[in-house]
């Protein structure tokens, strides 16, 4: 596992809120306890790229979750543009051409590229529906191996696949796990979930948590409870 100096960085809160204003309000509510934020489709298409720059300027780390996937040249050019934002992580789908294009576009920049293997809302039946002949665990293993070969920095998968992925990628790449559900919280559309403590114990580096914090009656207390679990399990 890569060394993470500040344990707070292990929690990434997904800013899945409608407006930049809502995002600022949430960041201010969560305060210093949360150091790492994810900006995904919802905000990226509503002023989120400027927000990313602003959060970076304020000393927060930002994970830009755009899950890029296109012909290699287009991915290369898109990633080249995104290196200028100062964000820490960027997602691409774990297709070999896409990953190679992203690594080329990243060049020498500090941006770390994460490859999304099999979405955590998918089970084996969903993969069959999408035309795949592999079970989730086999697809995740294959894509983790392809990501390592392509020069990607980390893997996005369910924490349930952490051991399989670690076996393939070794210690130097990151494992970032969404689909985290504190016990008692609603799974929603997530199908492959683990609790924060389970995910940390099994070896995940960073946990992505959205609705259990963002939609909590008291988001600061919810984030604090997740962080307590992370610290206790680290
Ligand atoms: O790339 C991601 O972050 C991601 C990959 C994946 O397989 N599953 C997944 O849920 N995510 C993202 O992680 C977040 C999870 O949010 P919650 O389900 O609300 O905790 C969302 O922003 C998803 O877009």
Could you explain the architecture of this structure?
The chain contains 11 helices and 8 strands. With 234 residues, the chain is an alpha/beta fold. It has an 8-stranded parallel barrel with strand order 1-2-3-4-5-6-7-8, surrounded by 6 helices. Strand 1, helix 1 and strand 2 (36-39) form a beta-alpha-beta unit. It starts with 10 loop residues before the first strand and ends with a helix. The model has no long low-confidence stretch (mean pLDDT 97). Orotidine-5'-monophosphate binds at residues 14, 16, 40, 65, 91, 116, 119-120, 156, 178-179, 188, 190, 208-212. It catalyses: orotidine 5'-phosphate + H(+) = UMP + CO2. It is an enzyme of class 4 (lyase). The active site is at residues 65, 67, 70. Pfam families: OMPdecase.
Structure keywords:
single chain; 234 residues; alpha/beta; eight-stranded parallel barrel; 11 helices; 8 strands; 44% helix; 16% strand; globular; binds orotidine-5'-monophosphate; lyase; decarboxylase; pyrimidine biosynthesis; orotidine-5'-phosphate decarboxylase activity
List the helices and strands and how they pair.
Layout: E1 11-14, H1 20-30, E2 36-39, H2 41-44, H3 48-57, E3 61-68, H4 72-82, E4 89-93, H5 96-106, E5 112-116, H6 124-129, H7 136-150, E6 154-156, H8 162-169, E7 174-177, H9 196-202, E8 206-209, H10 211-214, H11 219-233
Parallel strand pairs: 1-2, 1-8, 2-3, 3-4, 4-5, 5-6, 6-7, 7-8
The protein binds orotidine-5'-monophosphate.
Orotidine-5'-monophosphate is lined by residues 14, 16, 40, 65, 91, 116, 119-120, 156, 178-179, 188, 190, 208-212.
